[in-house]
């Protein structure tokens, strides 16, 4: 089975930089943890790769279609993924990979109790306490083989 590339973004707030778009090219799937703040940006991302997204606190005025909800759960490459904007809404007992946003600060860790991989990709647009960033998770044969925060700019 081939390696699948999941590119992880959050808190783009209506701006997709050329560097971010270049980095996303070639992704098998884009996971967005909310505060996209632009229906046209959703279409732009969807033209690069399929998008799995959760609504952020600034997304309620936008229509991204019926698959974008407060919590998005999906199966990908043999793993159960969960995406929410707020970390406190994650249920780590029901997923292998958990993605959240909101803080604009990158996080990459394994939960000590469940073993779930937990990621906040930070923000490529308005970072806090860090540089602009996104995440990338590579999966092969139902296993995460690499997970990293990618610094932009």
Q: Could you explain how this protein is built, in words?
A:
With 153 residues, this protein is mainly beta. 11% of the residues lie in helices and 35% in strands. It has 2 helices and 10 strands; from the N terminus they run E-H-E-H-E-E-E-E-E-E-E-E. The longest helix has 10 residues. It is globular, with a radius of gyration of 14 Å. It starts with a strand and ends with a strand. The mean pLDDT is 97.
Low-confidence stretches: none
Looking at the structure, what is the overall shape? globular
Largest sheet: 5 strands, mixed
Radius of gyration: 14 Å
Strand content: 25-35%
Mean pLDDT: 97
Structural class: mainly beta
Helix content: 10-25%
Total count of helical runs of at least 4 residues: 2
Q: Which assembly state applies to the chains in this document?
A: single chain
Number of strands: 10
Which sequence of SSEs, written as H and E, runs from N to C? EHEHEEEEEEEE
Strand order, largest beta sheet? 3-2-1-9-10
End-to-end span in angstroms? 33 Å
In short:
With 153 residues, the protein is mostly beta strands. 11% of the residues lie in helices and 35% in strands.
Please describe the structure with a list of short key phrases separated by commas or semicolons.
153 residues, mainly beta, five-stranded mixed sheet, 35% strand, globular
């Amino acid at each position: 089975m081939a390696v699948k590339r999941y590119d992880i973004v959050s808190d783009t707030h209506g701006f997709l930089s050329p560097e971010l778009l270049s980095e996303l090219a070639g992704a098998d799937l884009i996971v967005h943890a909310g505060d996209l703040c632009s229906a046209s940006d959703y279409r732009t991302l969807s033209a690069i790769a399929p998008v799995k997204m959760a609504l952020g606190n600034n997304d309620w005025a936008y229509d991204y279609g019926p698959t974008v909800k407060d919590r998005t759960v999906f199966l990908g490459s043999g793993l159960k993924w969960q995406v929410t904007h707020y970390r406190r809404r994650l249920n780590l007992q029901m997923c292998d990979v958990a993605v959240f946003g909101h803080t604009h600060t990158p996080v990459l860790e394994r939960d000590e109790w469940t073993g779930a991989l937990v990621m906040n990709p930070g923000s490529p647009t308005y970072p806090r306490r860090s540089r602009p960033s996104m995440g990338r998770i590579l999966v092969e044969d139902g296993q995460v083989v690499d997970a990293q925060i990618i610094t932009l700019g």
